What does this fold into?
Amino acid sequence: MAQDNITDQDIAGLVRRVADANAALIHGDIDGYLRLIRHAEDYTLMSPFGGAPTRGFDLSPDRLAAIGRFFKGGTAKIEVVETYRSGDLAVLVVIERQRVAVADLPEQDWSLRVTLVFRRDGTGWLLAHRHADGLVNGIGVARAAEIARGEKAS
It folds into this structure.
């Protein structure tokens, strides 16, 4: 049953939790991230790298180790664009302003536009959906069309 009583304090706490979790993740601290963010069983991810949305969060040791190795450190802060709440749902629309070293790439601007959908359950918040893209700086229609067609940059 929806409680419909998500307060400003609840949202502020959720934003802090997301910021702390993001900081842990970009340093490869997957355990720290998972202490702060619980994923719903029906979690969906629309990755900043595109492709088909994924369902569920793979908690296998191999997958968690791979995530931890992917992120090599950097700095990050969360810029809140907007928040929404209804019933037991909270939506955070943010820009993750970050300079991060990932995979084999040097540290660089890796800011993302992100939408996070959280659902409250009896024990706290569950992340139900994350949609992220790297289009913080914007692109033109021709480049967007190339991406939509799956073409490499010209």
Q: What stands out?
A: The radius of gyration is 16 Å.
